[in-house]
Amino acid sequence: MAKILIVDDSVFQRRSLRKILDIDGHDIQEAANGRQGLETLKTFTPDCILLDILMPDMNGLSFLKALQQQEVTIPVVVLTADIQDTTSQECLKLGAKEVIHKPLLPAEGERLRDIVNTVLDAKEEAMS
């Protein structure tokens, strides 16, 4: 069981992601924007972060920059409705491990679980 932080301004999206990941029994926390996500990191150390890009208050790119400045190495999977290649490239440049476009179709839940498990496995291998 891993700890996962979902940072997304959409309650519906957070609940959908939680439902997909609950299958694997992960400990999941939620934040409604980047600022709340950074605040959550003070008391909750996740093994993986699922991050939206387009959010009020502090967007996902600012969140990724803050993680980079604080030298936080938690793997991040970006889920975004922004389909521009430049946005995806910027996310990867700022340390995201993967960029997935939303909305996720119901059939894509397995793909998301596979990506999260791959990221978690890679983190575990790097620590050994």
Structure description:
By secondary structure, the chain is α/β, with parallel strands linked by helices. The chain has a single domain (3-127), classed as Rossmann fold (3-Layer(aba) Sandwich), CATH 3.40.50. It has five helices and five strands, in the order E-H-E-H-E-H-E-H-E-H. It has helices at residues 11-22, 34-40, 60-69, 85-93, 109-127; strands spanning 3-7, 27-31, 48-51, 76-80, 98-101. Strands 2-1-3-4-5 form a five-stranded parallel β-sheet, with helices on both faces. The longest helix has 19 residues, at 109-127. It is globular, with a radius of gyration of 13 Å. The model has no long low-confidence stretch (mean pLDDT 92).
Quick structural summary:
The chain has helices at about 10-20, 35-40, 60-70, 85-95, 110-125; strands at about 5, 25-30, 50, 75-80, 100. It has about 130 residues and is of the alpha/beta class.
- Helix-strand string: EHEHEHEHEH
What share of residues are in beta strands?
Answer: 15-25%
* CATH architecture title: 3-Layer(aba) Sandwich
The CATH homologous superfamily is termed: Response regulator
**Mean model confidence by pLDDT:** 92
| Secondary-structure-derived class | alpha/beta
For this structure, what is the CATH class?
Answer: Alpha Beta
Give the strand order, joined by hyphens, for the main sheet: 2-1-3-4-5
Which residues form runs of ≥5 with pLDDT under 50?
Answer: none
What attributes characterize this protein structure?
128 residues; 5-stranded parallel β-sheet; 5 helices; alpha/beta; globular; Rossmann fold
Write the layout of secondary structure elements.
Blueprint: E1 3-7, H1 11-22, E2 27-31, H2 34-40, E3 48-51, H3 60-69, E4 76-80, H4 85-93, E5 98-101, H5 109-127
Parallel strand pairs: 1-2, 1-3, 3-4, 4-5
